[in-house]
# Entry
Amino acid sequence: MKIDVLTLFPAMFAGPLDESIIKRARAAGLLDLAIRNLRDYTHDRHRTVDDKPFGGGPGMLLKPEAVENLAGDGAHVILLSPAGRKFNQAIARELAGQEHLLLVCGSYEGFDERVRESLADDELSIGDYVLTNGGLPAMVIIDTVTRLLPGALGDDESSLDESFSHGLLEYPQYTRPAEFRGMKVPEVLLSGNHAEIAQWRLEQAKQQTKNRRPDMIIENPGNGAME
Ligand code: 9D3
# Structure
């Protein structure tokens, strides 16, 4: 998969995408990632990325030209803005099926509406809080999508993932010592009875979900936590 990012702040992206699973996916050629400075895709002498809104008002708007330049080659174009639909795991799965994404980071400046009208395929937010720009949201989306690419996770990582991807929170886990400051590890986990352990874990996962994230049960009614 190819992901292009258009941003006013390319330096933000150094670090988080050069570690761990994303680093490995890039090295293996599963992910071809290019962070591009919006300024390098402008057309005029002064490399202007923004301009005043027609009709007056505060702030500046990102001009459509830079986005058009990169959107041309068939990429699925996603604007990052607080007005987008809220990103979640289902959207991540959709995006992981695309061949080429172009993530366009907004900032306190808005987009010229014609970017939405004629260049963007989608507009995403990562949640209801105000960030300074779309850089972190772009990294969140890259991270979430990359680990879904076939081959991105090692065997251990992906089999672990499968047992947790049924819309339930994780069950409580324990390691040694069997007793810590008077707190004991649940007896069943020491029993060696694998069927009983599996049943206990499923029950605990349902309880955790019901108590801590009842909204997940409403969103995934098939996850068994309603029983
Ligand atoms: C004038 C109203 N503000 C919207 C709440 C303007 C504004 C604030 C912050 C416009 C852009 C931004 C910068 N944020 C993003 O570009 C952004 C974002 C976010 O702030 N929260 C969650 N998801 C995202 S995706 C892009």
In short: The pocket of 9D3 is lined by residues 80-82, 106-108, 125-127, 129-134, 137 (CB under 6 Å). The longest strand covers residues 76-86.
